[in-house]
Amino acid sequence: MKMSAFALTSGFLVLSLLSCGRKPSEAAVQAQGAAQAADARVAALDQELAAIKAGQQTQAGDPGTVEHVAKSQARALDRRLADAKASAAQVHQDAASLVAMPAAQAPRTLVLEVPAGTRIQVALARELATDKDKAGDPWEGALAEAVTVDGKVAWPKGAPVRGVVTQSAPAGRLQGGQGGLGIRLASVGRDDVEAGTFLVVGDKRGERNAKFIGGTAALGALVGILTSNGHQGDHALGGAAVGAAAGTGLAASTASTVIRIPAGLVVFSLSAPEKVIRKS
Q1: 211-229: string of b/e by CB count within 10 Å (b at 16+)?
Q2: pTM (2 decimals)?
């Protein structure tokens, strides 16, 4: 992985401080850790995108569905990678500023680790639908509830959230007459996060079935769900899919091909622990 200019700058500043016998502030140390984590996230997304584009994650199944899922995932990853790079650049810039700041002037920080599996309740800002939202398109919302760790607020209620559409195929588009609309959470406040995929599968008769797919939502898992009538393909997830969004108005009228996720509450779950740095 190539180091960014911000990473090199902050690294040189730390070496300069140490050579002068000056110890970086705790805030600077924490900020550098956050910068390294941001670089690691960019590298992971870059690697995942390269594998899909190279066909290294080709899955068995209906060729049309496999092609649709792979292309959709690549478009979504393109968006996430661009956003992650921009976020990493800002994190490095913040770290460089803190490293250059005298320790006595640096803010005190509090590091909270939000555990994997933490529920993230998001209020979508608008309805999403397969006739107007495509894979790779961004979406926005706000936290419906604060996320706390040991009584301390990691992300407050109302914090802005952003995500990306990962799948968008109207009912009837895929094998067996199915289609799907999937969204993934990408950031909460200024923090990038790894969360699962909220997926609504539907057919032309108006049936809609919402799932939350934990983990990284491998291509095989998505192909299994989007190919299988009656959602027998859930077994491909190894138990990672759970029912979701009951009573949120997902049902469509008879013969409707548009799949929608209405404005309102959608619940995600962190796929991995996330360190959040706050001023104490």
Answers
A1: bbbbbbbbbbbbbbbbbbe
A2: 0.83
